[in-house]
Every structure is written in structure tokens, then in C-alpha cells.
């Protein structure tokens, strides 16, 4: 397998289709919620990513087939007064899981973050997603993120 990681060109229709297809595959999987992306989301996703000022999307290709994606956003650490990189989505198509594609994407994200002067990488993962948690822990992610003496939680509130 010839693996290639590249920064997605959000104006390229082939890259746009690859992003949507890989994320749809993940969303359709039980670990991604088990429901495909809606037609509305499929249509709006890439233009919205393109419009967001801190978006970084990396695509993984195996033998010219899109097999993985990392969707990231640059944030800011007030305690370090430096940027940080949040990995919002990391997805590998089911047939290619366990082949090192996720680790290759993580390495590419880390390289991009270091180039941008980021102080850390952040992400969230479901407690029940043991496979992903194992990959992240092997890559060096740990809790607590802030160096506190107690575990940290990443919480959210849905706004309509």
C-alpha cells in the first residue's frame, strides 16, 4: 500500500468529495453515531470548512483512494499565550483501520501544529471508542490535558 498524506485543497472538487465521503463513512459507522450525513450537511460541509478561518484538513490516500481524514482547527491557549491545534475529526474508513493510517494522520497534524508554533494538540474521543483511545494514548495523548492533578472532561452544549 502506497500511503500519501496531503493538505486538502478545499476548492478542489476531488478533495471536497473525498472529505465528505470519508466523513460520511465514519458517521455511518456505529462509532460515529450510525447515521449518514444528511444531504444538507453533505452540501454545506466543505464550503463551511473553507469559510472558517482556522481550518486545516489533511487527507490520507492509499493507492489513490481516499481512506482517511483529519479535520482540525487552530485555537488559542491563554495559559501559554500560543496557538493550539484541535483535531475535531479523525476518521479512517473501516476497511483500512489498524493499518497505521490514523497514526500517519496524527503525525502529519503534529508536524503542521509544530510549524505553526502550537503549544499542544487537543481532541475528544468517546469513552467507549477503545480502539481510537488506544491509538491516541500510544501517540502520546493523555489526561489530564492541563497538567492538573485530576482528570479533565471535554464538555459540550448543543445550541439550536
Brief overview:
It contains 4 helices and 5 strands, in the order βααβββαβα.
Keywords:
single chain; 160 residues; alpha+beta; 5-stranded mixed beta sheet; globular
* Radius of gyration based on Cα positions: 16 Å
Number of helices, counting only DSSP H or I runs of 4 residues or more:
4
Number of strands: 5
Q: Give the CA-based shape.
A: globular
Question: Helicity range of the residues?
Answer: 25-40%
Largest sheet: 5 strands, mixed
Secondary structure class reads: alpha+beta
What portion of the residues fall into strands of 2 or more residues?
25-35%
Can you list the strand order of the major beta sheet? 1-2-3-4-5
Distance between the termini: 43 Å
Rounded average pLDDT = 91
**Poorly predicted spans:** none
What is the ordering of alpha helices and beta strands?
Answer: EHHEEEHEH
Notes on the structure:
The chain is α+β, with helices and mostly antiparallel strands. It contains four helices and five strands, in the order βααβββαβα. It has helices at 13-28, 39-51, 101-115, 130-139; strands at residues 3-7, 55-62, 65-77, 82-92, 121-123. A five-stranded mixed beta sheet has the order 1-2-3-4-5, with helices on both faces. The longest helix is centred in the first third of the chain and has 16 residues, at 13-28. The protein is globular and about 40 Å long. The protein starts with a strand and ends in a 21-residue tail after the last helix. The mean pLDDT is 91.
Amino acid at each position: 500500500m502506497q500511503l500519501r498524506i496531503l493538505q486538502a485543497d478545499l476548492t478542489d472538487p476531488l478533495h471536497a468529495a473525498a472529505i465528505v465521503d470519508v466523513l460520511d463513512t465514519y458517521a455511518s459507522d456505529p462509532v460515529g453515531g450510525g447515521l449518514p450525513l444528511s444531504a444538507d450537511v453533505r452540501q454545506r460541509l466543505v464550503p463551511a470548512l473553507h469559510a472558517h478561518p482556522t481550518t486545516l484538513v489533511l487527507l490520507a490516500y492509499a493507492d489513490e483512494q481516499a481512506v482517511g481524514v483529519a479535520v482540525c482547527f487552530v485555537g488559542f491557549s491563554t495559559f501559554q499565550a500560543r496557538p493550539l491545534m484541535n483535531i475535531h475529526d479523525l476518521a479512517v474508513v473501516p476497511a483500512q483501520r489498524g493499518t497505521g493510517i490514523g497514526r500517519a494522520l496524527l503525525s502529519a497534524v503534529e508536524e503542521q501544529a509544530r510549524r505553526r508554533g502550537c503549544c499542544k494538540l487537543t481532541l475528544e474521543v468517546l469513552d467507549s471508542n477503545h480502539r481510537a483511545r488506544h491509538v491516541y494514548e500510544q501517540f502520546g495523548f493523555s489526561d489530564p490535558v492541563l497538567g492538573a492533578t485530576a482528570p479533565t472532561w471535554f464538555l459540550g452544549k448543543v445550541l439550536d
